[in-house]
Design brief:
single chain; alpha/beta; Arc Repressor Mutant, subunit A; D-Maltodextrin-Binding Protein, domain 2; 3 domains; five-stranded mixed beta sheet; three-stranded antiparallel beta sheet; 11 helices; 14 strands; 39% helix; elongated
C-alpha cells in the first residue's frame, strides 16, 4: 500500500487550496496585489502570503512584474488557464444552484453596450428576451470603449454587445452581424444619382463625422490617406442621429454604418454603399474569458442571431429582406 500523500503534493497553507488559487487568479487578472485584495475584501499581506504559499507548493515562480503590472510567467499562465474555470465555478456555485432552482423566471442580467448598439441593434433582442423571461431584471449599461471593458473585467456586467476592432487577450469577441459602410446625402444631392461612385467623387463635399477620437473618424481618415484622396471635414458632431439630421438639412455628407439607417431615414436621405473602399463593421458578443454565464445570460446570447436582425443594402441603399 502506497504511503499517504506519495502521489500528490501536500498543500501546507492552512490546508486550503482554494484561497491561494483565488488570490492568484485575481492578481493575474487584475495585475496587482492591491486590486486583488480589494476584489476579495482581504488585506494585501494576506494576498501576498497566499501567493508565496502557492509558489512554494508549485515549485515555480508564477508572477513577474512588467512595468506597473504583475503578469503571469509562462508557468503562471498555464496554472491560470487551469485554475480560473475551477475557481470561478466554485465561486459561482451558489448562484448557479439558485438559478437552477428558480429557472429563468428570476434573477437579473447586466449587459453593457454603446448608444448605437442600444438604439439600433438591441431593441428586437431585448423585446424577444422580455417576452420569454419577463421576470428577469434586465439592465443595459450605456458605456463604450475602456469603460465597458472595465465593467466586464470587474464582473459588474455579465457580457457586452457591440463592435470591436482590437480584442484584448483576456476577452473573447464573437462577431454576429456585419454592416456595410454607407455614404449618406440629401436625396437631391449630385452623388445620390451618380452612376459609378468613386472615392474621389466625395472630395468636393464637406464631411460630417463623429469626433476624431472615435473609431469611425480614424477609419475614414485612414482610407482617404491610403488612397491619397483629399477630403475636408465640414462638421464634427457626436451621435449618428445628429449626423443624419444635419445631412438631411444639407450641411454636408457623411459616412455611417448601415446599422443606423432606418426605413424613415431612407425617406429623407440617399444611401450608397462604400463597401468597395471601407471595411464592413461587425457587431457581436464580448465576454471575459473563462467567465461563468448564468442561464439568463446564455438565454440572452442565444437570441443574438443573424436572422433576428438582418439588413443588406444594394448600391442604391434600399434594404433587401
Amino acid at each position: 500500500m502506497a504511503s499517504r500523500g506519495s502521489d500528490s503534493p501536500r498543500f501546507a497553507y492552512k490546508a486550503d487550496r482554494l484561497k491561494p488559487l483565488r488570490a492568484f487568479c485575481q492578481t493575474a487578472r487584475l495585475g496587482s496585489v492591491s486590486r486583488a485584495a480589494e476584489a476579495l475584501y482581504v488585506s494585501q499581506p494576506a494576498i501576498t502570503l497566499q501567493l508565496q504559499a502557492l509558489e512554494r507548493d508549485m515549485g515555480v515562480r508564477l508572477l513577474e512584474r512588467s512595468g506597473r503590472r504583475l503578469t503571469p510567467t509562462r508557468e503562471g499562465q498555464l496554472l491560470y488557464d487551469l485554475a480560473r474555470p475551477l475557481v470561478e465555478g466554485i465561486d459561482g456555485l451558489s448562484t448557479a444552484f439558485r438559478n437552477q432552482i428558480g429557472g429563468l423566471d428570476a434573477g437579473e442580467l447586466q449587459v453593457a453596450a454603446g448608444s448605437s448598439t442600444i438604439l439600433y441593434l438591441l431593441p428586437k433582442i431585448v423585446a424577444a428576451f422580455r417576452e420569454r423571461h419577463a421576470d428577469v431584471r434586465l439592465s443595459l449599461h450605456n458605456v463604450t470603449g475602456a469603460s465597458g471593458l472595465d465593467l466586464l473585467r470587474s464582473d459588474a456586467v455579465d457580457l457586452a454587445v457591440g463592435s470591436m476592432l482590437d480584442v484584448p487577450g483576456d476577452l473573447s469577441y464573437a462577431p454576429v452581424y456585419r454592416f456595410d459602410p454607407m455614404l449618406i446625402t440629401p436625396r437631391d444631392h449630385p452623388l445620390a444619382s451618380k452612376a459609378q461612385l468613386k472615392l474621389e467623387d466625395l472630395s468636393p463635399y464637406g464631411l460630417i463625422l463623429p469626433p476624431r477620437r472615435l473609431t469611425t473618424y480614424r477609419m475614414v481618415d485612414l482610407v482617404f490617406q491610403q488612397n491619397r484622396v483629399p477630403y475636408t471635414v465640414a462638421l464634427e458632431v457626436g451621435g449618428w442621429e445628429v449626423i443624419k439630421q444635419y445631412v438631411a438639412m444639407g450641411q454636408g455628407i457623411s459616412i455611417v454604418t448601415a446599422i443606423c439607417l432606418t426605413d424613415a431615414d431612407r425617406q429623407r436621405l440617399a444611401a450608397r454603399s462604400l463597401a468597395k473602399y471601407f471595411p464592413a463593421r461587425s457587431y457581436g458578443v464580448v465576454m471575459r474569458k473563462g467567465k461563468y454565464l448564468s442561464p439568463q445570460a446564455r438565454a440572452f446570447v442565444d437570441l443574438i442571431q443573424p436572422d433576428l436582425f438582418k439588413r443588406d443594402y444594394d448600391e442604391t441603399g434600399h434594404s433587401e429582406r
